[in-house]
Every structure is written in structure tokens, then in C-alpha cells.
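Amino acid chain:
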Amino acid sequence: MRTPFRRALALAIVPVLAFSVAGCAKKAKSDLPYVARDVGTLYSAAKQRLDQRQYKQAAALFDEVERQHPYSIWARRAQLMGAFSYYLSGDYTDAISSAQRFLAVHPGNRDAAYAYYLIAISYYEQISDVTRDQKITQQALDSLGELTRRYPNSRYASDARLKMDLVRDHLAGKEMEIGRFYEGRGQWLAASLRFRAVVDNYETTTHVPEALLRLTEVYLALGVPAEAQKSAAVLGANYPGTDWYDRAYKLMQSNQDKLAKATAPAS
């Protein structure tokens, strides 16, 4: 689920460049050969690579700042800048790892919210289509949720909430995809559980109207027309002008005999 927000993210890093730092940083990995250099030279070289969009080289040099000068005032800054550079290079695994390392060492830092955001969007960028496993999607949702819980008033929270809505819609789409598969194979109960999950757990997503129609279909197939009528009624009350309701209405009309028998008083 790639989105064009890298420019916005680049602007968001500006406060990181300006913050005042002190203390130590955990040693970072680096694939560069060890060549002793002063911290100013290393950091300037890393920043130059970043400005030139040589993101992998920038990340390696920021890591080298940590490795060679772990107690300098630049180490903490380099740690987060390295994570940012990994993100821009598309190396989301190392971006997440670097940001997590920053949080482990500096949990109370004022730029911790940005580190949480960087972790969340690194997961978000890896979301695949609904035909594939959605473990990463759930990790994105969890990370975005953690950011909004910890820093609800931060500059990143509103964007995180928007992305959470998109991620929930994606997860609902996965449930629908599985439910349609089961329905196509005549596995009515399994299908109903998936469609019910969409209605109950993802009620604000775009998939709910179809889920209600599918529940109408599978409940009729299961021989419980009263439940089918309830699903169709909810669909009509909340989405009256949709094609999904039109289909559900026609389906219920064609099954009036079943419904009449189900609702008739016992003799």
C-alpha cells in the first residue's frame, strides 16, 4: 500500500535535525570498513549523501557515527537519521530496527513520537494485496495504534488515524476475500463467520454493505431465513440506495415462502 507521502515525511524530519542531544547511543551495525574519522566529518558526509538521495550510503554513514562515536552528542541524532535513511531507501526492516533501537535507548526522548511513526509507516509501506498473508497489515495497524495511544496530540497522530482507517478497510477486504471463497465452495458456516466478522469488527469500512448481502445469501443457504431477513433489514436501514440492498431485497422476495414458513406460528 504505497502512498505519496515521502515528501511530507522528509519535512517531518526537520525537527529531528534541530534537536539538542546528549548521552550515549547503542552500537549500530555497519557494512562499512572501519576507518577512524572525527564525528563532524562522518555526520557531514552522511547528511551530504542524504541530500543527494544516496539513501543507503547515508544510512551506513549515520550508523558509522554511532559505531565510532557512541558517546558523542551526535550519536542519538544519527540513530534516528539512519532509520529515516533506511526508510527512504526502501529498506523497511532496517528502518524499523533502527527506530526500535532508538526507542529502547531513548524512550523518553521528545522525538520518540517520530520514531514510533517511522516504525508504523515502514510496516504500512509493506502492506500487500488481500490475496496474500496480512501479518504485516496487522503489524501496521498495531504500530499506528500504539502511536496514537502514546502520543494522541502529536503532529503524527492525525495521519496515523487516517492510515488506521485505510488499514482496517484492507483487513476487512481480506475477510471478505476468504468469505467469498468459502461461499463459492458451499461452506456456508465458515463463510458466515467471515462476513459476520466484517460487520462486527470493521463496521466503519466500505465492505459492510456487501458483507450484509453475503450474510443474507449464506443464511438462506443454511436454512435460517429469519437471520437472512435481519441482515437484509440492517442493510436496507443503513444502505438503502445501494446495489447491495437491491440484490438483497430481490433475494428475499424470491424466498418469501421460506420466510413465511419460518415466521408462521406453530400449530
